[in-house]
Amino acid sequence: MAQLFDGIRVVELARHVAGPFAGKLLADYGADVLKVEPPEGDPSRHEGPFKDDLPDRETSALFLHLNTNKRSVTLNPEAPEGRALLRRLLDSADIVIEDFRPGQMADWGLGYDTLAEANPAVVMASISPFGQTGPWRDYRGSELTLQALGGPLHLNGSAHRYPIKSGGYVAHYHAGVAAAYGAILARFRVVRGGRGDHIDQAVYEAQAGFRDRRTVYTTATSYTGKVGRRQPPGSRPAMGARPAGDGYVNIFAGGTKHFMATLDLIGRSDLKEHPDATKPLQSYSPEFAEQVEGSWAAWLVQRTKREAIAETQAIGLLGGAILTTQDLVEDPHYRQRGVWDTVDHPATGPVEYPGRPVILSRTPRQPARRAPLLGEHNAEVYCGLGCSEADIERLRAEAVI
Amino acid sequence: MTDHADSTLPLDGIRVAEITVVWAGPHVTQVLGEWGADVIRVEPVNQIQPYSRGGERVMSRDMGMRAAESGTILSAYPDFEPGEDPWNRSPAFNAHARNKRSMACDVMSPEGREAFLRLIEHVDVLVENNVPVTIERAGLTYDVLREVNPRLIMLRMPAYGLDGPYKNYRGFGTHVEGMIGHHWLRSYPDGSPEETGEAFTADALAGVMGAFSVTAALMERGTSGEGQQIEMPLAEAFLPVLGEWILDYTMNGRVAQPQGNLHRSHAPHGVYPAQGEDRWIAIDVGSDEEFAALCAVLGAQVLLADERFATGVGRHEHSKALDAALADYTREWVNDDLFHRLQAEGVCAGAVHDERDLLASPQLAERGFFEEIDMPGVGTHRYPGIMTKWEHTPNAIRLPPPRLGEHNEAIYLDLLGYAREEYDALVAKGLVGDTYPESLVPRTWMQPAP
Fold first, then answer.
1. Do A197 and B251 lie within an 8 Å CB cutoff?
2. Which of B251, B284, B444 to mutate to probe the A interface, most A CBs <10 Å?
3. What's the ipTM?
4. A62 contacts: CB under 8 Å, gap ≥ 6
5. pLDDT in tens, B71-100
């Protein structure tokens, strides 16, 4: 059955999260993605969490998740012979994803201009912390520091405490999608008769363009000269994160258009007559705010988080339960929708993975193939380039592959 | 150098219609528009779409300034002035609406439905992010629209899916964050999720993911000649982002605990106080060499000599004590000074930058990220630009955010071929216009607090 990216050849020279996620999005929807790893493997193979917490380059969850549907070869681009092999791999690619330091590919004689001379249709997506140009181009960046500089980190957390980052590697995942989008846009121009291009995706710039508050608040600052700040917890009566019987929920009730129905729901119909009941939240008197908050909090803790959400959804309130990963994986909604893929792997056995981000009506995604073992496809790929088995043995002995 | 005469934007000639609300849907069409698509925003003028143009809650200048003093600027109009048309002055709307045209149309009315179906004949893509039942009630599901235009690509972005128990659950991004495990994960390790605050991370992810999948479907359409429906629930588009945490549960049975600024192996890895009120610096040390360089810059030789901190494993194990000790040094520094000094020594660090700092970033200035836009009636302001650079394809914002109904005539008369009399009849009925009826505008919000 047809998939979105049938026939597209991708070479992924990228490590850790951002570039590999771009490659995964292409691979999961049908592209032939060849992952070129250094001889010791992508650093994500060494990060974990590992199966049973035993470090093993074949059982790192970060790697297994990010590299489904790809093939793996190993290659040392520092070795001249490695670079020659790499050049041949790159010359057959429609899309190249790389995340070396800015200028590294050109120093190896593998920069965009060189590749485009041979193949004007090639698309190269370069991912870097701060971009290929600019005064910070050679600065080091990580998930934490790039969220701090580029993203809305200063708004996260409580006014009474230090700011906290968003979870996991979200800035790098986001930059990875942005790079994949750029690559597919450029490829689309190629198939419409145009040329390829060199996509320059900075994680920092993706964070500056992040519509998790960053672009909105920056526009507001541009309008007013003022900046946003972290808020104190519990400052809005019957609105925001609160304890329920078995965890937490986040519901907007106070001051909303369904507030009267909320008072009925929590058994405080008497408060509907209060003069503050129809006012916006900011205009509640302290006495009214205290009554509302007290009754709301008491009502919530008598219910499980999912019960509290179901009952408040029924009267039109906006809200959600604050789920743990266990809640999430076991949740009946996601189970019923089949969002988890079971992927078998020789080193882990069958494990459930997050499946598709999107569902296509006519070109559905095919079941995921497991992530490759390190160098699993060396023989297949290098034989395809005309290497003999003896050549491959020698390259391995010389640590080229 | 290769010859790059072709710098046409890749989506040049592609037309996109949107019936979107709030944050995530409009972000998809923002990034499609930035790469060349002609985006038509279909929006009613006989009702106010909540949280979309900022018109649902008109704040007086005083209220806006008070909110800003407490750090809330989400709804801050230019100079805090709501003006006569606050719905053209919302930062949440104007941050995404560049390169879009606005067409007044109520798809729930018979006349609006007819206009909308005529529009569907002329577009390649439709993007919507309403509660599923809304689209079903409107009779605008994909099976209906494909009869009008078989080449249509329709992106649907419900919060949780077009089926399943949570199908019609309502929520903003901040609520979806809870339902995908992100709120819990990003909370303070030693605190309550009540302290975590709001986030709209899934909206940001879904915006780019949606544009990616639409473009992919457009490319595939070039081969097959057919459109299709793309279903992208906000929640599901985000699940891969937590992949390693989910696998830790499905593979090892471990339930992830709130992480705050913790890292799986790096230490120090955190946000440390700097000189001034609410000023901070983020530092991420992954090797002994970086730790030595950090201690040298800070003059913290005593930490370098401390046996507990001699190895990466030791630093990670004793990270609480290490963080407390480091804070005593970092608070002597201006965060930007320390940021550049540490980078010069090869230490991965970054100042925590608020919006004002971001607008002043020399890196973004050199790369031309922020762009000035003159929006009629709103004035000239700087806006976040395009998050991706192409080496040989110059790109910039082409159109300012549209005022409500600004492009009615161009779309009804020129694109859809309405006769002037037909158009005037829609205006007379209040279905087409460039303002909301004053009776709908909740100016009661302008009353000052007691």
1. no
2. B251
3. 0.97
4. A17, A44, A47, A48, A49, B243, B244
5. 999 889 999 999 989 999 999 999 999 999
